[in-house]
Amino acid sequence: MSDIKSRAQGIEPSARARNVNEIAEKSSNIYESLSVVTHRARQLSTQLKKELQGKLEEFSSATDSLEEVNENKEQIEISKFYERLPNPAIIALKEFMEDELHFRYRDGNDK
Fold first, then answer.
1. DSSP string spanning 57-107?
2. Looking at residue 9, what DSSP letter applies?
3. Which residues neighbour 77 within 8 Å (Cβ) at sequence distance 6 or greater?
4. Is the Cβ–Cβ distance between 48 and 90 less than 8 Å?
5. How distant, in Å, are the alpha carbons of 23, 27, 102 from that of 111?
6. Are 65 and 58 contacting, i.e. CB atoms less than 8 angstroms apart?
7. Does the first or last residue of the chain, that is N or C, have fewer Cβ atoms within 10 Å of its Cβ?
8. C-beta separation of 111 from 44 below 8 A
9. Nearest 5 degrees, angle CA 34-CA 4-CA 95?
């Protein structure tokens, strides 16, 4: 997980226009490229969500109720850190464009 966070911190978090032809060159067409990026973005999103929930559970107690929510500075800082990370789709596209992702077709052909 920390590897994802450290690589994501250097990425510009805002979306920007991309050259569709460059994305399509990585596979046989744009739809396959976007399918790979989408699948990886879902993986990243799930991993980051599980990690965040795990860290926030450390601060929860069994006696918390809706009326008694204590604000913890560490908990707020952790949440803000994850909010500042780029969208998983941006991270996945960067990995794809830099050939950090390896994908294969169902028939077994690797890319």
1. HTT--TT--SS-----HHHHHHHHHHHHSPPHHHHHHHHHHTT----B-TT
2. T
3. none
4. no
5. 14, 8, 6
6. no
7. N
8. no
9. 30
Q: Which of 20-51 are b and which e, b meaning 16 or more Cβ less than 10 Å from the residue's Cβ?
A: eeebeebbeeeebbbebbeebbeebeeebeeb
Looking at the DSSP bridge assignments, the partners of residue 38 are none
Total-model pTM:
0.74
Residue 60, both tokens: 């929860």
For 14-70, write each residue's pLDDT tens digit. 778 888 888 888 887 899 999 999 999 999 999 989 988 888 887 766 555 555 555
